[in-house]
Amino acid sequence: MVKLIPLRVLDLFCCKGGASQGIKNACDDVDILGVDILEKTDYPFDYLRMDVMEIEPEMLKHYDFIWASPPCQSYTYASKGARNKGKKYPDLISKTREMLLASGKPFVIENVTTAPIIKDLVLCGEMFGLRIIRHRAFEIHGFEVEKIPHKKHIGKVKDGHYVTVAGHGGDGKASLKAFQDAMEITWTKDKKAICEAVPPRYAEYIFLSFLKWKKEQEQRQK
């Protein structure tokens, strides 16, 4: 019997693993390595603590798929006031893109919709039945992802339909459980990390498209 080799996935700026978990939900036969500059004791997969910008180009070539979620604070509405007062945040999107393009591997860059990325796809929690709005943009290289029509937001935060997973929250309660349930991130109790995470459903949807593309490529080569 021929043993299939698991796909190798690299999750850069992995935080507590929202994207990683979504990728795992899409395909159990994957080996995931998360990379982040900060210690992530409850990241649920293999983890390497290092500065993403110091990764050797040769390392990237050993992976089948790369996900990157560079810090978003340089572009968010929430940090605008602090930026106007002179506070500086890391601005790593262009450097990340340059590094990943050089790898020649399929990759995704995820960030807030105000970030300077190519918005090949924008996802919202309502598309997946989540109790969050949380629009996120995705720049996708090497494969295509079918766009989902944006659904009308059918409720409001103040009436309890949605949870705002940001800062101290906007659901009137801002409980840890409210954050966990809304994002479907239950393995960490770090509210700040949950606020910075991508919902696993988003990554799952994108990775399923990658798997479909990969299968089609393999069939063409036979």
Give the strand order of the largest sheet, numbering strands 1, 2, ... along the chain: 3-2-1-4-5-7-6
The mean pLDDT is 90
Catalogue the unreliable spans. none
Task: Give the oligomeric state of the chains in this entry, treating copies of one chain as homo and distinct chains as hetero.
Answer: single chain
The helix/strand order is: EHEEHEHHEEEHHH
Q: What is the strand tally?
A: 7
The Rg value, from CA coordinates, equals 17 Å
Strand content: 15-25%
Q: What's the tally of helices?
A: 7
Coarse morphology: globular
Structural class: alpha/beta
Strand count, sense and closure of the main sheet?
7 strands, mixed
Helix content: 25-40%
- Span between N and C termini? 20 Å
Topology:
Layout: E1 7-12, H1 18-26, E2 30-36, E3 46-49, H2 57-60, E4 65-68, H3 80-84, H4 93-103, E5 107-111, E6 121-123, E7 136-141, H5 176-183, H6 191-196, H7 200-220
Parallel strand pairs: 1-2, 1-4, 2-3, 4-5
Antiparallel strand pairs: 5-7, 6-7
Helix pairs in contact: 1-7
Question: Could you explain how this protein is built, in words?
Answer:
By secondary structure, the chain is of the alpha/beta class. Helices cover 29% and strands 16% of the residues. It has a seven-stranded mixed sheet, sandwiched between helices. The chain is globular and about 55 Å long.
